[in-house]
Amino acid sequence: ILPVPSRTYIINLTRRSERRDMMERLRKMLGVEWEYFPATESANPIVGQIISGVNTPVSLPFEWPVDDGRAPVVPFEDGKGIAPYDDKMDPLLCSTGAFDLTPYSFNPTEQCTLTPGRIACYHSHYSAIQHAASAAVPHVALFLEDDIDVESDIQERLASVWEYLPEDWDMLFLGHCWSDETHHGVLGPPSPEATTHLRPSNAPLCTHAYALSPKGLERITRDLAHPSLAYSRPIDTVFRFLIQNGRLNSFSITPSIVVQRKDDMSDV
């Protein structure tokens, strides 16, 4: 799909065979190859273990991990051999920043709770990113969720803006939601005929379509597993947090060239 050597990963729950069938039809239409990566079920015992681990104190003040490429990455387990957990436990509150604490009396909105589904989503994306980052040959990685649809000329649209992507890019959003990604100016010379644009990311949310450079893979793998940040909030708000704190050099394509279908209920 991308106009450079890359690998594409589809994050898919194994039991959702109907979504895989739809993605196969899409793959054949586009004439591309991709790899299916097994997503984590919300009932997986690893989710209960994560909830128990996150629900313990962490040291303050918050500090970013060492960004020297040598920080060890702790592999996440797949849940095998772990006892089942009580999936009726209350959801956790998400963090709202790096250096502040959420008061115990805080009355959270539904979007500010860490449900088992959101933790499973975090684990799914982190595991897929870690899988790509551990490949023998560094590569650009594209991550897609299994409920997407794309513009039929997506490859041509990507090729039209790719040359304006800086060499030091970390992340690229092909699709996004709940954010004004037209906030920043267009990169590249203005063209009245252009219908697809590349811009610095503003505050993108949703994780249905994003790419990571080899450097971005390395950095985000380390940051997502950092004890003070891991599972502190839903995965898409972690991405936004890293972007807004200058940890990721991120860009967004506008308008979105990959969207989520609305004909099925979310698994999160």
Short description, anyone?
The protein is 27% helix and 16% strand. The protein is α/β, with parallel strands linked by helices.
Give the secondary structure arrangement, pairings included.
Blueprint: E1 6-12, H1 17-30, E2 35-38, H2 45-54, E3 92-93, E4 113-114, H3 116-133, E5 140-145, E6 148-150, H4 154-162, E7 171-173, E8 197-200, E9 209-212, H5 214-224, H6 235-244, E10 250-254, E11 258-260
Parallel strand pairs: 1-2, 1-5, 7-10
Antiparallel strand pairs: 3-4, 5-9, 6-11, 7-9, 8-10
Helix pairs in contact: 2-3, 3-5
Q: What does this entry look like structurally?
A:
The chain has 268 residues and is an alpha/beta fold. The chain has a single domain (6-54, 107-260), classed as Spore Coat Polysaccharide Biosynthesis Protein SpsA, Chain A (Alpha-Beta Complex), CATH 3.90.550.10. The chain is built from 6 helices and 11 strands. The protein has helices at 17-30, 45-54, 116-133, 154-162, 214-224, 235-244, and strands at residues 6-12, 35-38, 92-93, 113-114, 140-145, 148-150, 171-173, 197-200, 209-212, 250-254, 258-260. It is globular, with a radius of gyration of 18 Å. It comes from Roridomyces roridus.
